[in-house]
């Protein structure tokens, strides 16, 4: 299989854009709001995360919300904002595609296409992501095994796109004191099985702002190639995932700590 260590021994290094390489030595932090809510929020948050040391800008324009009555995202207008913010702050960008048509749109505006947890087994979507050239961040589903995650990656790789990153973002267990259960076990297991870079998402993984930093440090210690973190200047007003979004000061302090952990491991 294309994702396996038997097929390729050396770690895959993904050249994104603006000199960002994922899977090489540096641990890249992708950060920004859960959803692109307005131009002001996108630019304001981009400045905050860039100043703190993030190297990739995140923001959802198409949001897979549990409720159809919740904010669904700004769509293409949002993509224009994140593209412009990436340009202004010299950061590659990442945003989610929920459908085959959105893959094409995303590949025009963003540098990395995110496939969300809820679409991990949307095989037509995976094939579409494999047929275009932008790197893909594939998020593990909340009830997906490591084997199924790797098979989903195979759908993208087998279409000719080898630039795939795998993302652990928490799975569903009986535990209900956190939003999901971050499966840190998956990291050493995946590192052994695959050459693809591993990105960890402690924001969704635990879902509780005051604990995100602690888990982010654990993510670095366990061997992540990168992290994806939600940051919002006013989380209490956020239209999506406010309770897990880091405050600007928290994020800046965490980035310094992450550097120390990275140096120690
Ligand atoms: C997100 O990144 O905001 C998101 C919806 O993630 P997930 O697909 O992991 O729930
Ligand atoms: Mn979110």
UniProtKB/TrEMBL annotation:
Query: Could you state a single Gene Ontology molecular function term?
Result: aldehyde-lyase activity
UniProt keyword list: Transferase
* Superkingdom of origin: Bacteria
Per the UniProt entry, what is one GO biological process?
aromatic amino acid family biosynthetic process
Listed transmembrane segments:
none
**Residues of the DAHP synthetase I/KDSA domain:** 13-259
This protein's record includes keyword Transferase: yes
The name on file for this protein is Phospho-2-dehydro-3-deoxyheptonate aldolase
Q: Which organism is it from?
A: Endomicrobium proavitum
* Top-level taxonomy: Bacteria, Pseudomonadati, Elusimicrobiota, Endomicrobiia, Endomicrobiales
């Amino acid at each position: 299989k294309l994702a396996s260590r038997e097929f390729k021994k050396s770690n895959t290094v993904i050249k994104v854009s603006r000199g960002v390489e994922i899977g090489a030595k540096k641990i890249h932090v992708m950060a920004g709001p859960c959803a692109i809510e307005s131009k002001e929020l996108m630019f304001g948050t981009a400045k905050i995360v860039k100043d703190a040391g993030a190297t990739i800008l995140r923001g959802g324009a198409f949001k897979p919300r549990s409720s159809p009555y919740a904010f669904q995202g700004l769509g293409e207008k949002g993509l224009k904002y994140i593209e412009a913010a990436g340009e202004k702050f010299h950061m590659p960008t990442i945003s989610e595609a929920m459908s085959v048509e959105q893959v094409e749109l995303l590949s025009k505006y963003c540098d990395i296409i995110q496939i969300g947890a809820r679409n991990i087994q949307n095989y037509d979507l995976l094939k579409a992501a494999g047929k275009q050239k932008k790197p893909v961040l594939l998020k593990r589903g909340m009830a997906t095994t490591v084997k199924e995650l790797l098979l989903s990656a195979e759908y993208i790789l087998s279409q000719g796109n080898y630039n795939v990153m795998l993302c652990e973002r928490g799975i569903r267990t009986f535990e209900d004191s956190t939003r999901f259960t971050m499966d840190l076990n998956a990291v050493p297991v995946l590192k052994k099985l695959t050459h693809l870079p591993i990105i960890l998402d402690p924001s969704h993984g635990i879902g509780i702002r005051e604990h995100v930093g602690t888990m982010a440090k654990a993510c670095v210690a366990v061997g992540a190639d990168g992290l994806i973190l939600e940051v919002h200047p006013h989380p209490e007003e956020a239209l999506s995932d406010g309770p897990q979004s880091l405050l600007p000061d928290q994020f800046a302090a965490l980035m310094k700590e992450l550097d120390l952990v990275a140096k120690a491991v």
